[in-house]
Amino acid sequence: MTVVLDGGLATELEARGHDLSDALWSARLLADDPAEIVAAHRAFFRAGARVATTASYQASFAGFAEAGLDRGEAVRLLEVSVELAREARTDPGQLVAASIGPYGATLADGSEYRGHYGLSVAELAAFHRPRAEVLAAAGPDLLACETVPDVDEAEAMLLAIEGLGVPAWLSYTIDGEATRGGQPLTEAFAVARGNDQVVAVGVNCCDPRDVAAAVTIAREASGKPVIAYPNSGENWDARARRWAGSSRFAPALVRDWLDAGASWVGGCCRVGPGDIAALAAVVSPPAAGSPPG
């Protein structure tokens, strides 16, 4: 069975009129307007998504501290991110994936699209472990280790979630058939082979046209189910903090991902509920004679 994921949570929040230009991005609304996060999650569920990814991607203890929140408040907001996604569910079969974004995301300067931060695997694991512990304890169905730019950070994330008792997926942001850090995808996906906690590997926040080839490599290198949720294909200008270009997210490409072997599909930045509805229609076409909608 193919699982439909949600799209860009921040994209939907911006469409609802929110300014997410500060360093906390969508995580700011965990404190400022949690009801809007519920509404955004629910919009994707109503579009056909079976998984909601929490508003914790860019959340970190350091980032919350810079915003004037102490550690206790930061822990509570991480917990809230999971609670809000659960609250948004429209049926009990829908799942909540707690987002664990890369170290570069917390810098809010586009570093996740470069990787190689100059930190060791041990240092990165030490950064990720405390928030991974909090998110896992909040009771999500999955951990989403996502937008990983290089193999070092992938290894660190897998160390950070080890023993937490929550299944996880690992997804890289890529450029062609390499990670953003320049490593071959065969090497990148192989880090999850034999890791029973990892239930899927794949790619996200990349050009939709790069997905099909990556899915094939992921399946062969990891021996695991494959997840794919690219962005729209537009380009992120970290300095101006805006997207440029035109969307290339299209149902025809989704068919290519499925044909390549993807079993979890959705979208990332700049992919809204309408796009997910179109994707869901590819995954499960309406029966002949069914009324539209």
From TrEMBL:
<feature type="binding site">
    <location>
        <position position="205"/>
    </location>
    <ligand>
        <name>Zn(2+)</name>
    </ligand>
</feature>
<dbReference type="InterPro" id="IPR017226">
    <property type="entry name" value="BHMT-like"/>
</dbReference>
<keyword id="KW-0808">Transferase</keyword>
<dbReference type="GO" id="GO:0032259">
    <property type="term" value="P:methylation"/>
</dbReference>
<dbReference type="InterPro" id="IPR051486">
    <property type="entry name" value="Hcy_S-methyltransferase"/>
</dbReference>
<keyword id="KW-0489">Methyltransferase</keyword>
<keyword id="KW-0479">Metal-binding</keyword>
<dbReference type="GO" id="GO:0008168">
    <property type="term" value="F:methyltransferase activity"/>
</dbReference>
<feature type="binding site">
    <location>
        <position position="269"/>
    </location>
    <ligand>
        <name>Zn(2+)</name>
    </ligand>
</feature>
<feature type="domain" description="Hcy-binding">
    <location>
        <begin position="1"/>
        <end position="283"/>
    </location>
</feature>
<keyword id="KW-0862">Zinc</keyword>
<feature type="binding site">
    <location>
        <position position="268"/>
    </location>
    <ligand>
        <name>Zn(2+)</name>
    </ligand>
</feature>
<protein>
    <submittedName>
        <fullName>Homocysteine S-methyltransferase</fullName>
        <ecNumber>2.1.1.10</ecNumber>
    </submittedName>
</protein>
<dbReference type="Pfam" id="PF02574">
    <property type="entry name" value="S-methyl_trans"/>
</dbReference>
<dbReference type="InterPro" id="IPR036589">
    <property type="entry name" value="HCY_dom_sf"/>
</dbReference>
<dbReference type="InterPro" id="IPR003726">
    <property type="entry name" value="HCY_dom"/>
</dbReference>
